[in-house]
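We modelled the chain as a single entity of 464 amino acids. Its sequence is:
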Amino acid sequence: MKIRTVVGAAAFLSAFWTVAVWGDSRLAAAEHNVPPEGFVALFNGQNLDGWWGAKTEDPRVYMALPPAELAEKKAASLEDIRQHWRVEKGELINDGTGLYLTTDKCYGDFELWASYRMVPGSDSGIYLRGIPQVSIWDATDETKFKHGADKGSGGLWNNPAGTPGKDPLVKADNPIGEWDTLRMVITGERVSVWLNGQLVVDHARLHNYFDRSKPEGERGPLPKIGPIQLQTHGREMRFRDVFLRELSGDEANAILAAKGDEGFVPVFNGRDLSGWAGAVDDYMVEDGAITCKPGKGGTLFTQDQYEDFVVRLEFKLPPGGNSGLAIRYPGEGHGTWNSFCELQVLDDGHPKYNDPNDPKFYDLKPQQAHGSFYACVASHRGYLRPTGQWNFQESTIVGTTAKVELNGFVILETDISKVDPATFMYPLERFTGRNNTKGHFGFNGHTDPVQFRAIRIRKCGGGS
């Protein structure tokens, strides 16, 4: 499926979200633990195959272990799992203690269903990519009201206080002793949750619990992949109908593009370069995308100018591809140095940027990775989709700040006015456009056929 327009993405999202309304009855009508079409069953209804045990621990650490060490860690956990988890009549039961049930397989973007039944005082949760957590607890337990239990289950409880998703939008819990059903959709760091068919978390960012003690500038996004974990705290919990469907890149992009799209105005019509200026002869429109002609380059920019704005777009990189987003470009001069900044667009995982043995090796610096405030502030790497797939990116420019969200992951947040110029790759005077408060938006082509489509801009505040 390829979503190429905002209308198409919105229509897809509307249909996708509607599943929450009728999904519970669909599951109830089916045989338990038998997945609907397109899903796999994480729990087979018979035994604990496909699971091991872990506690609340950073999944990035154990996922980085050598395969033999990870296998040893998993095997060592199974004795504890057998002591505290069991299967009876198609139900997965925990006695309230022990390690958390953890999937052998790791997942990226997905849709997850899980039904559960509590006893009075239950306290549980579901970890997404090993990150705590979608909360499950007894919403009538007054001893936990101080922690937010009275607001109900389904919130992203480990998010910082006051952030979206921390508390559920509505209280949708069934009475204790009845089965509840969660539906969770995660795209990048963006999570939506339905409890018993009611939306309780709406596309909120799940914060990285394991980086919470680091300085703000050092906190990383969620892992790109990770396991599903079923957590329990002190009371019996029962689970069944644990189903998962992995999302394609196009499907995830459609969700990201359609959510929060109010106020965005298309600046590319998908047919020609009307409304664009600059190096128009070095670019072409191909299959609904602006494409830099091979061997060509230069800065292609919008005729309109912007002060503070948000730009959403999709881009596709060829192997080793290199381009950039020109931010507040004055309409003449160099697209990198004369702009407020260039946000790098680069296949930064290609061997020529990383492998000294590659014949075209270029010693890539951290400030040159994709999404970086070029030559000044490094982004978090590793969140591009595989070369040849479309990526979704949202870039926000307000004053001297820049924020980049790639495929749902926040990979850059910086205020350049607070960054020590001594850390830049080049002398400060080279960045001649650094004080621009207004300018054009554009693309800095570097001879590679990088493609851009679905380009939309929303002005912030009173900016023109």
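As a brief sanity check on the tokenised model: The longest strand covers residues 237-246. Residues 264-459 form a domain with the Jelly Rolls fold (CATH 2.60.120.560).
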